[in-house]
Amino acid sequence: MPRIARLVVATLGLVLFAVLSVASVARPGWAAPALPTLEPPGASSTDSGAKEALDRQTPRRTIENFLKRAKDGDFRLAASYLDLRAIPVEDRDQEGPELAQKLAYFLQRQPSFDPATLPDDADGIAGDRTFVAAKLYAGEEPVPILLRREHFPDGVDRWLISETTVELIPKIGAVAGPGPIVSRIPWQLRRPTFLGNELWQWMGVTLGLLAAYLVGGLLATLLVRGVRVLTKRMPTRVFDALVKASRRPLRLIIAAIVYRLLLDSLALTAAVRDSLEHVTYSALVIGVTWLALRALGISTIVLEEREARGGVDAFSDRRIRTRTVLLRRVAGLTFGFVAFAFLVIQFQFVRSVGISLLASAGVFSVVVGLAAQKTLSGIIGGIQFSIAQPVRVSDQVVVEGEFGEIEDVHLTYVVVRLWDKRCLILPSAYFLEKPFQNWTRSAMDVVGSVTLKVDPVVPVDSIREELHRICEADPLWDKQTCIVQVTDADLAPPTPSLTLRALVSAEDASRLWDLRCRVREFLAEFARTQAMARR
Q1: Topology of 446-533 in CATH?
Q2: Distance CA 275, CA 279 (A)
Q3: Chain segment 355-365, per-residue pLDDT in tens
Q4: Which phi-psi region, left, alpha or beta, contains residue 198 (left: φ > 0; alpha: ψ -120 to 50)?
Q5: How far from chain centre, in Å, is Cα 425?
Q6: pLDDT tens track for 173-186
Q7: Which end of the chain is more exposed for a tag (fewer CB within 10 A), N or C?
Q8: 340: which residues sit within 8 A by CB, 6+ positions away?
Q9: CA distance 107 to 100
Q10: What architecture (CATH level 2) is domain 390-438?
């Protein structure tokens, strides 16, 4: 409910903003002042300074300033860059701004048209008085954008958009101009303009974003609920968890697609449309990556269900869990890298840099390899670690003279929980390059020894019987191994002795440690009592 309330408040705020904007534009005090009547080449001029401010000295400046005036919404001044001699003098003040607006609307929506490529020389190219700025297409009809150098009464030559192109503007407007919906929009919503787009277009950009968010949330909710109805009949929780985890990523993906479709109906300028397309593309990439990472997280549920069914023993479960954790992290890193590549490759300057880097890939690879040697070796070692698996989660190991248990395995490091609750952090490459003890590599159960030196007068059989009694009474013993061996004998006076080794087993190393301590304590006391009784 609070989320719906916030959306309603945001919608009302946008509507209020639109009403205030229309009201402010409709006020008489905000009307644009009328400019002097346009004068074609050959007419008299009473204000040459104002004309010089138009800067029509080169083809590039003529086109750039024409588009700048149009982007500012000053179509009367933009019409000064057109050759209007074919239009009667009494109609130029009315038709000139309309023609300028139609031509600017067409040029601003041509991604391939770049005024920066035009010559910035007053003589044009090779001194020609006519220059073809571009050859564009309105539908399937070719439209040449011609500039012509005209001689003005003040003796100065200036570049204008030629009379030939001006005559084609009505045809351009009919084919590539605003649609019928735009023509029905009130004039209050078509002023002022910002970055070449009118007020109604910016309102559409804002309201379209809100609409895309609402539609994305609604469709994602309906889709998730529909799929959850189907997954309830399945015995596994994997699909239900996957559907529940994919709700937010799906909302972002659907919202990005809906918003991209809405942009086509707004007839935005090429620059603004390209910027918004970059935003929607980025949101789509992030949403897909987010969904993939959520799907990777469900792998732990698969492991839990498999273990609960009892089809996997503890040893296999540790192996599978370790491999799952490592592969999930490697896959997560890979997805993140690929997503970052897709995000940056959409920009032209990044592609240009990438091509330059490929041209010098040898030197660049050597520099990066030397600078990030430790980092790269850690990542590569982590990938190799995930394949070889020298240790697994819950393995009991002896590293750096310390006994502990593998608590967590990451891509570049491993966490070992020591017997005294301390954590030992080791790089993954450590287990590939240095020797260590893994007590549970091939099986969970382990065998340990207890060494004692006893008086030869103590019968060995009595110690064997005592060991069996101790083990039978201790719940830590796994009922597998319980033997006594004589490993050495020193019968020479004055202190003859026998060296005995008691072997016992337990389910894991931690239990074995406690069992060995108890066996050592009880056997030592038993041997001392027997020796004193026989002397």
Answers
A1: Alpha-Beta Plaits (3.30.70)
A2: 6
A3: 555 555 555 55
A4: beta
A5: 29
A6: 776 666 555 556 66
A7: N
A8: none
A9: 10
A10: Roll (2.30)
